[in-house]
Amino acid sequence: MVKTGNGTPNRADVCSEAAKEWNKIKSKSREAIDDVIRNYLATSYNLYDIQTMRPRFSVPREDLIPLPTPTTIHSVDPIIEISVNASAQRKAANEITIAEKKLTEFEQINNITTDSQLRNDMYLKIENLRSEIESNRKRIKKLKRNANYSQKCREKKCKIINENQE
What we know:
Elements: H1 11-25, H2 30-42, H3 47-52, H4 87-112, H5 116-165
Helix pairs in contact: 4-5
């Protein structure tokens, strides 16, 4: 199955192939069996290829160059500048970064999975993360607006105090 790239093999075929392989291997020494198991476990295979790649030619799987995993392209948002003493803004920005990392992971899992229940769960988690990111961005905007307003009020107050002292 792994060598052919067939993601949906016939169960009976897989069982018969496994039985044939085991019959060949079981008569060997313990070290040889351990080597075969290590070889099987060391075989890297990209799960993304299972659902998208369909073999049209008979080339051994080891000869193919592995395809990179697909990445989700997010729109480039401007980097949020946060002042040194704005801890609430920094906390919201950190929450956005964590949520974006989780969002990327969940999108990759959603792209790989074939199970409808898992796909539905991932979709719900993705939507929750997107709404969390959006609410944190709005929160940062409000915090910045409030900080600007309080800064202007302080400047105005200082200006009035300076005028009264003169």
